[in-house]
Amino acid sequence: MTGRGGGRPLVPAYLSTGGTARPSRPHLERLSVLAAGGRPAPPDLPAAELALLDVLDGGALTAVEAAALLRLPFSAVRVLATGLVDRGLLLTRAPIPPAEEFDPDLLKRVADGLRALKST
Prior knowledge:
With about 120 residues, the chain is mostly helical.
């Protein structure tokens, strides 16, 4: 018998959330940054929530990156993450907003300055 390849996981995603379908906090977006809260994980933490904290150990990831590493849909990671936030085990930060429109004059002056540095 051969193992499964890159297909779907054997456990449905809704089981990883304990059957919870909706997150407790609606503001968590795909590009929200997740980081471990620094508190030790309680011993009764479900395996999926513990896996999310393990992925975030020593750094921060966006919610969609964490979902990819856990091989879970974003909707499941969103439910797991909001549950951990409610318990104080996870910190979230809103996505970084896109940069405002650039000033073409400023870019031209920077390019001119770089050319001047190169020629000296």
